Amino acid sequence: KNCFLTSMLLFFFLGSNGQSQPKNKMITKEIYKVGSTIYCGGYLVSLPLGYDANPTKKYPLLIFCHGAGAIGNGADSATLAKVEGDPGSIPNQIKNGTFPSSFTVDQQEFSFIVVSPQFNFSGGGFIPAIGNVIDTCQALYRVDPERIYLTGLSMGGMYVNGYTGYHYSRADRIAATLLACPSGVKPNSTPWMTNAANAISRSNLPF
After folding, report:
1. Which of 64, 81, 131, 136 has the highest CB neighbour count under 10 A?
2. What is the pLDDT of residues 114-146, one digit of tens each?
3. Are 61 and 147 in contact (CB under 8 A)?
């Protein structure tokens, strides 16, 4: 898990520092409905190269939660395209072909199933929304349940904090998180965020 967290740090920020990366070979599909949730209407899914050729292989799942500027109902291509809009974000890197389709850690090659949901709200509801996305991905794709990773930008980072911090069982479900500028995290934060941070700390979640 720690190797994956380190790797996530590396490739998440490579897109903004000018370093060259392998040409992306992941194919992104648009899905317009996520289970029965009212909080998330669709998502982008990018499967690893060779996914169809390895029908028994399970892959780590990386879920990217967008910022407030990408809110939408996920009903069509134009709306879902907002999820790819933040420069340097994972779905933006995938779109531009700069996100590695695979990477090597300790001489082992790894690749992710990458899912970028589009949330249709800016307030509460992140717990059922993220939980439903995870459930849907596990039902539809060959996800390794021991390697589910959450990352989020601004509002999306706040959602990840809330999801993993509200109850131990949710933090235990996640292998690691990586957040960029999560909103709501500050010294005079609201009590719920402080409680969530304390719960994350007690869970020993790689963060």
Report:
1. 64
2. 999 998 875 567 777 888 889 889 999 999 999
3. yes
Residue 148 is inside which H or E element, if any?
Answer: strand 143-153
Would you say the pTM of this structure is higher than 0.70?
yes
Q: In what order do the strands lie in the sheet with 40-47?
A: 27-31, 40-47, 113-119, 59-65, 143-153, 176-180
Say if residue 113's pLDDT is above 90: yes
32 near 23, Cβ under 8 Å? no
Q: Helix, strand or coil for residue 103?
A: strand
Of 71, 84, 79, the residue nearest 32 (C-alpha): 79
Number of alpha helices (DSSP H) and beta strands (DSSP E) in the chain: 7, 8
The rounded distance, in Å, linking the Cα atoms of 6 and 148 is 15
Q: At residue 86, what are phi and psi to the nearest 5 degrees? A: -75, 115
76 — phi, psi (to 5°)? Answer: -155, 175
